[in-house]
Amino acid sequence: MRLQALAVVLLSSLLWGLTSWLTPPALALTQIRLFDISYHECPADLAQGAVTSGGTTMAANCFIVTGKAENKSGKPVVNADIFGRIYDANNDSVMQNRTRLGSIEEVPPGISDFELRISVPANQPQPLKLEQFKAAGFTGKVRR
User: Were 42 and a residue from 30, 47, 49, 97 both cysteine, which residue would form a disulfide, CB within 3.0 to 4.6 Å?
Assistant: First the structure.
């Protein structure tokens, strides 16, 4: 009986050791600080666009949002989703019920520049107000 118990303990320990060795590392979201956020109109070759909602098409203005991204992780971050709020001159939301605005393909360690193209309905008055911008991504490749 003692021999069987010892065999079970040894086999369990061996299996635990093998599975922990074979398990891939856990990937956690890495927070990216975004700052010095501003925007400007798109160049003419990118400026044509429309905003569609529920099958209706509306004229839109194209803007490029630019800023700096700070990655303190020491590793490149991939597929970093950009979140933020954009309001028009009347404090109305430009992107209703949506805080994910786009993504940055790769954010190297340290501080780097980023840009994001957005389309805003032409009837929303300017200037735009860009608030609460941040990003989060992974330090390893993520299947999408």
Answer: 47
Q: Which of 113, 109, 144, 91 is nearest to 37 (CA)?
A: 113
Place of tokens 């927070």: 31
Amino acid identity at 119: S
pLDDT tens-place values along the chain, 144 residues long: 777 776 766 767 766 666 665 555 555 689 999 999 999 998 877 666 555 555 566 788 889 999 999 999 999 998 899 999 999 999 999 988 788 999 999 999 999 999 999 988 889 999 999 999 999 998 866 555
For residue 34, give Cα distances in angstroms to 88, 101, 139: 20, 13, 17
